[in-house]
Specification:
Two copies of one chain form a homodimer. Chain A is α/β, with parallel strands linked by helices and 425 residues long. In chain A, 51% of the residues lie in helices and 10% in strands.
Chain lengths: 425, 425
């Protein structure tokens, strides 16, 4: 039985018991939410990991994307990147490899990952068709389902499926036009297939078969947003919302069949449209957890898109988004290296935590209070220990040691906290 | 005459004319707002620089703090930091030096700064008292006014004056208690003075004299927030709001006397209290421009506080804050170096721009649209040129050149934008 099925049968699984403890929720509340689908426990039945708990009232989670491209395809480097992502606190990773032996890469990452692993199976299916049949347009629905089944068997915990890109969506995209038509890589594979074959999206047509595979392994379906805007000028347009309507219907179908589901969201979105995006996702998709990429609140900062994504992610999460896909400084410029991954994970974790404070996630504010207590006392050892990245904080501190060891070199002898201590005990 | 006086006499000064052109506002609208005080043109009469235009309907501006402490007091390094701040786009700088020959430092920075320069004159007054009289408690109102007059004569463009810390504020602070009593350095000097002398704040008592000096040189008064919370747990408390009430009254007094005024704001503030902070500032201070430090939306990320501040700054500005004081990665750990200054300025500029898009600041969205047009066309030269930090974008691009020169190494041959171009022209 899948977790949602168990919850609906009023059974508390060991995974639910662990998740309730870890999230400081009552087991009954958690079970009820898993049953309704507002919380998912992401974990393939075959995998021996802690589930990634995503949804209503839980800590906002962070995903880090890994993976090769034709230009950068070292397995060793991917495993190193995986290690960095987990070390800095990613709650899940996605292997988005499109270069090299992607099957072998995925298996190696799965083997080494202690956190939930997601994939976009259409990549493998499209690349197979390209390599074996000469063009991705020759890919069949069976080719896609075979890849899904193979990846499920390997132990992948969640699948992005772009099942919401229908011909109706594409006709709206054509009619309205965009500055950048589509930036979803998985989406672009399917769109090309649909344009050339003039047929409906096979991942929409065969969604029941996808459900079947997901159910067998308790894979969480992450309904992908192929119409994710690639510039804030295109955000929240009719193509994007048309797809989201379909994703809501597909989410219902998945849950009716006891399959856990989350919804992927934009993308490039100006600050004043983020709340609306979260609200309509929650409403139209029956409170399915919302998994957002960024969102990026401006297009003009390549090299700093982790900061742009942290602004958008914090706002999205504060309005109810549940799962943040990180953005690294290398976005729009190159495939990320280890340092980019560190910066991306930390920036997203900051956004997630800032939102968790205002979401009243149990324990979130305590972290800030404890840090502040040590800050007031100028207890540097504990401040560094409590930092989101203790190594970086320690490095900064060590690089600039003041004469008076209890202050810092910003204010030195004029430390306001030290002065105030004399008068306010 | 000061700019506000000119505007009220229906005179369009060269500064107003320039500001209207630069901000794409009609000169009459700008003049009316300067007259009401919802826009200020920050510039000492004696200085030959463009004014820093802050307020209603104008581009959100960014300030970078510079300055020495006892532990770090190289004049050469400060001038280098000034150069970096201006190069990366700071609209104003503040010299917060407390170490070395601070008079000489300030004069050198003034001489080299092409942007508006602010100071916190109480630093110099308190340090003088400490050095010449043995303790800051021996500082007199005249000592403070002399320093203000001297700095005004030197050409400082705006002054932070913590005139709102009254005994009434301190009694509320004592009654309610805080995790961190006060983190404003200027505030802490005055609080110590008030606690030891058991007298009212001289910068409150002699506010009319401060107004007089400001008027003579058309210095903008930045009413400082000595009760700025130093942890999100202390945000928006009675001490902070009590001070803000007083700042509103002082702002009225300044403007009645034809002195331009802005209000300083927090500090450490959780995401869901930022809008309220902006709203009450605007309401209680007669729409005086709001100058916020951060705000920082969590306390747990030393080493990354530029990101924390970008989240808070973007939210504050989107709700109407006008002027962002940057926060650097070194905040809470050390005095910033050149690299910290670059990161701080860029992070704040990203926050300001993201907010300007939703504030509908003329031209803001055009930048994003142009970037996106070049992105869709994979025109790397123009994308880099349009980036907020072209040098960093170029470095990333050069570090990872793909086989196909028109894409990037993230997706390489599977670039969605290139694929889509075939089907959506």
């Amino acid at each position: 039985m899948t977790q949602i099925e168990l919850a609906r049968s009023d059974k508390l699984s060991p995974e639910m018991r662990w998740a309730a403890r870890d999230e400081r929720l009552s087991p009954d509340v958690l079970k009820e939410r898993v049953g309704r689908g507002s919380i998912v426990l992401i974990k393939n039945k075959k995998r021996k990991i802690k589930p990634c708990v995503v949804g209503e009232g839980t800590r906002t989670k962070v995903n880090a994307n890994l993976g090769t491209s034709r230009d950068k395809l070292s397995l060793k480097k991917e495993l190193k990147k995986l290690q960095i992502a987990i070390h800095y606190g990613a709650d899940a990773v996605m292997d988005l490899s499109t270069g090299g032996d992607i099957k072998k890469l995925r298996k190696a990452i799965l083997e080494h990952s202690s956190v939930a692993l997601g994939t976009v199976p259409i990549y493998e299916a499209a690349i197979n068709a390209q390599n074996k049949k000469g063009h991705l347009s020759r890919m069949t629905a069976d080719d896609i389902l075979d890849v899904l089944e193979g990846q499920a068997r390997d132990g992948v915990d969640f699948f992005t499926v772009h099942s919401g890109i229908t011909q109706a969506v594409l006709s709206r995209l054509k009619k309205q036009r965009r500055l950048i038509s589509a930036v979803s890589r998985g989406g672009s594979f399917l769109i090309e297939w649909m344009m050339l074959n003039k047929k409906e999206n096979p991942m929409y047509e065969y969604f029941d078969n996808i459900i079947e595979i997901a159910k067998k392994y308790d894979i969480t379906l992450s309904l992908g947003d192929g119409m994710r805007p690639g510039t804030i000028a295109d955000a929240t347009d009719r193509a994007q919302i048309q797809e989201l309507i379909t994703l809501g219907e597909l989410a219902d179908r998945a849950r009716k069949n006891d399959v856990q589901v989350i919804i992927e969201g934009p993308g490039h979105v100006p600050m004043d449209q983020i709340e609306a995006n979260v609200t309509i996702e929650k409403k139209m998709c029956g409170n399915a957890p919302f998994y957002v990429l960024g969102p990026l609140v401006t297009d003009i900062a390549p090299g700093y898109d982790h900061i742009v994504g942290a602004i958008g992610g914090a706002i999205a999460a504060s309005h109810g988004a549940d799962f943040l896909c990180y953005v690294t400084p290398s976005e729009h410029l190159r495939i990320p290296d280890g340092n980019d991954i560190r910066e991306g994970v930390i920036a997203s974790r900051i956004a997630a935590h800032a939102a968790d404070i205002v979401k009243r996630v149990p324990g979130a504010l305590d972290w800030d209070k404890e840090m502040s207590k040590h800050r007031a006392a100028r207890n540097w050892k504990e401040q560094i220990k409590k930092s989101i990245d203790p190594a970086k904080a320690a490095l900064y501190r060590k690089s600039s040691i003041p004469k008076d060891k209890d202050v810092c070199t910003m204010c030195s002898n004029y430390c306001s906290m030290r002065t105030m201590e004399k008068y306010f005990k």
